[in-house]
């Protein structure tokens, strides 16, 4: 397997990755994700309801799709092939809505790191993923704790 991610030792607190991949969201993305996750909330799948009953006037992009997208966009340039496991998410927020037609860009900052006490071949990173729309409004933010591979001996 090709490893494009970084080993634990290659990270440093304060480093910011501005990811090259951007993604324009579609109505199909939103309806498909909502259907696949059995979320029938009209705020994601009912255009007429949102037009007449909501302050937004159109369906909101499902926030769990947004969360998965901002983490997913980050993987290739940070942890692809070097993650052992995700340990958890914290401080997840969605400060601004996303709609079909919006384009998301992502940046990731290393906010903490420490060697694993129980697994000497691993380290633990805390990465803060931030997603922005095409107008630079912050649309999603979360901290992700990740168990990472340390660089193999001799490399």
In short:
This protein is α+β, with helices and mostly antiparallel strands. It has helices at residues 27-36, 42-45, 47-53, 63-78; strands at 16-18, 23-24, 83-93, 103-115, 122-132, 138-149. The protein has a single domain, classed as Thiol Ester Dehydrase, Chain A, CATH 3.10.129.10.
Strand portion = 25-35%
Shape by Cα distribution: elongated
Note poorly predicted spans.
Answer: none
Question: What series of H and E elements makes up the topology?
Answer: EEHHHHEEEE
C-alpha Rg (nearest Å): 18 Å
CATH topology: Thiol Ester Dehydrase, Chain A
* Mean pLDDT reading: 95
CATH architecture, please?
Roll
Largest sheet: 6 strands, antiparallel
Cα-to-Cα separation, first versus last residue: 16 Å
Helix content: 10-25%
Work out the helix count: 4
Total domain units:
1
| The level-1 CATH class | Alpha Beta
Structural class: alpha+beta
The CATH homologous superfamily corresponds to Hotdog Thioesterase
Strand elements, count = 6
Description:
The chain is an alpha+beta fold and 155 residues long. The chain has one domain (8-149): Thiol Ester Dehydrase, Chain A. It is 24% helix and 34% strand. It contains four helices and six strands; from the N terminus they run E-E-H-H-H-H-E-E-E-E. The protein has helices at 27-36, 42-45, 47-53, 63-78; strands spanning 16-18, 23-24, 83-93, 103-115, 122-132, 138-149. Strands 1, 2, 3, 4, 5 and 6 form a six-stranded antiparallel β-sheet that branches. Strand 4 and strand 5 (122-132) form a beta hairpin. The chain is elongated and about 60 Å long.
